[in-house]
What we know:
259 residues, alpha/beta, Purple Acid Phosphatase, chain A, domain 2, six-stranded mixed sheet, 6 helices, 26% strand
Amino acid sequence: MRVLFVGDVVGKPGREAVFALIPSLRSELRLDVVVVNAENAAAGRGLTPEIGGQILRCGVDLMTGGNHIWHYREIEDYLDREGRIIRPANYLNAPGRGSHVVRLADGRTLGVVQIEGRVFMKPLECPFAAIERELAKMGKTTGVLADLHCEATSEKQALAWYFDGRLSAALGTHTHVQTADERILPEGTAFLTDAGMTGPMDSVIGMDIGLSIQRMRTQRGTQHVVAKNNVKLCGAVVEIDDATGKAISIERIQRSHSD
């Protein structure tokens, strides 16, 4: 099974990269499943049902969320009724679900789970416990991918090592900067600390450079405006052994998109 995981989609530039590139990447990379982190797809923060539908229609099998997924109130009903989007599993008593099983026509299945980290973030339920619960809930699958939506690289690495051999892939999101540490851990889990951002690279994690600098220099709040230039789709392709659920390979990808 070949799976493409796409890092945080940021605003309109990121969406347009997904719309333009995913259909051709499915063929070129011989992909079975495409999973996209879409928590920032609407104007750089949050997701709307309309945009979620557009992303799913371009060849995406499943979307994941994150701490910004709650930005628009209408997303709550969407999380409950659309099975092809998940949010971090360690938000208890929240709309939606923390995992989902993608079922292919040939009978193979990919379980996908997402958690949010607690280091430098919210005091949510323990992410280790949340993954354990979701793994038990989804049962036996051909493979399992985890979106580790964490601020701290150490927390992502600790989670990957703890679940080594039980996850096919443990891929980080949230920091919007693609790391260069892709590897397969000893028991067969493909790991990448951060899959990166799908959006404008001439930016400060997707946002307008000048406004971001102003906010940091003055410590005054400024409007968040999505940047526009040097748009790339970032992520990773993981190949999973159908018999064992172990990762065979992991490859970082960056693809440029221009209007």
